[in-house]
Amino acid sequence: MWGTPDMVSKLEHVLVRTPTTIGNFVADAQWREPNRDALVPEHCEFVDLLSELGCTVHTAPAVDGLVDAVYMHDPMSMTPHGAILLQMGKRVRQPEPAQIRKDLERIGVPILGELTGSAIADGGDKVWIDAKTLLIGHGYRSNGEGISQIRNMLSPFGVEVHAFDLPHFQGPDAVLHLMSVLSPISHTRAVVYEPLAPIRLLEFLKSRNISWLTVNDAEVHTQGANILTVAPDVVVLAAGNPEIEGKLRESGVAVHIFNGANVAVKGDGGPTCLTAPLSRIN
């Protein structure tokens, strides 16, 4: 029942967390101060949209003080064989994998393994192309040891792990995940922010006959490249990205808009960041 073979097959079960309104959003989590009264209503709107799109949504409670915990995609990575609990490089997020373990155990989701020692990795750096192909961004949030441990956990299942170096960009304190620049929208198409995309990544996509739509310099900052696909060519996009929205619609993609100005964009997260996918069905 549990497992995700890729990022685009029909999303059946998904885990989210109610956002906290208690904590230092700016100093600790490096958010731009949100309208705290809007956090929960925006999140509820997002959950309702996922339900309307046919997803079974499992909602975990807020954890006061863990501001970033609303971004459920990061503390674990779902695989076709169970969840991998990660270790997070951002200090204030280090309690999150232990918290999500409780949520997964409560639901009954199997845990394949967990990172140990000096390994760090965020779920936002992981993109499944298919059940045998995982792409990982090597950057400030996912290091070589983290990638090595994930590769070792998946090698018995014949999974190929391809790592791509991410650029320095704004430095170690800024968020730059692989999914900041790449979001698959079907088995053969993706959305890409080319200026920060590793060249070897673009070459890899071409080698797999995956084409892409491009995001502009403004909309990458409003999560135009971080798109949640709930079925092939059916996506959820943060409001305020008219150019990529138009490109998607013109290419035949069904686009569902989510107003996440506070719960998503103010924390540099998109619709994908707000979800921990638990099962997808081809």
What's the short version?
With 282 residues, this protein is of the alpha/beta class. The chain has helices spanning 36-52, 96-107, 144-154, 199-207, 242-250; strands spanning 10-17, 56-60, 76-79, 82-85, 111-114, 126-130, 133-138, 160-165, 182-184, 189-192, 211-214, 228-231, 234-238, 254-258, 276-281. The chain has a 3-stranded mixed sheet, with helices on one face.
Describe this structure in words.
- It is a single chain.
- The protein is an alpha/beta fold.
- The chain has a single domain (10-185, 259-281), classed as 5-stranded Propeller (L-arginine/glycine Amidinotransferase, Chain A).
- Helices cover 21% and strands 26% of the residues.
- It has helices at residues 36-52, 96-107, 144-154, 199-207, 242-250, and strands spanning 10-17, 56-60, 76-79, 82-85, 111-114, 126-130, 133-138, 160-165, 182-184, 189-192, 211-214, 228-231, 234-238, 254-258, 276-281.
- Strands 2-1-15 form a 3-stranded mixed β-sheet, covered by helices on one side.
- A hairpin with a 2-residue loop joins strand 12 (228-231) and strand 13 (234-238).
- The chain is globular.
